[in-house]
Amino acid sequence: MAKETFCEAEERRFEKFKRFGLPHSFKKIGIAIVIIGFIIMIVGKIADFNTLSLKFILKRVILVGLLIAALSKEKVEDEMIRTIRGQAFSMAFIAGVVYTLVQPLINYLVSFVAKDDKSLLEDVGDFQVLWFLLTMYLLFFYMIKKRL
Description:
Elements: H1 2-18, H2 25-47, H3 52-71, H4 79-113, H5 126-147
Helix pairs in contact: 2-3, 3-5, 4-5
Keywords: Membrane, Transmembrane, Transmembrane helix
Transmembrane segments: 29-47, 53-71, 92-114, 126-144
């Protein structure tokens, strides 16, 4: 009896986690955070006050903005939107894995062809991967949603 109760409680928690989402109004907040982060980064580059710590902070701010936009619900959050969300996450994950595997090779080949002295095979950074995943998710989500 206690085992069934524990399993039911776990299932309720899992369902609550699956349905998690920020209110629709947070989508605009997330997009605004991303835009402000990009503007500050560009102004910092032009004004030449882009320090390493400022870049580090701004990259995280942009990622948080993208995450907020990705986790925000639509005005009408129904079963079709949840299905689209799942498809978009799957496609973004696959695209992210392919990007992470192929991009270092492309960078190496381009630097080899350009006869760059430092043609090393380097991994893709954490910011690049997370930015790519979140951006691809949002693009796939809106492409699929618009198509239907």
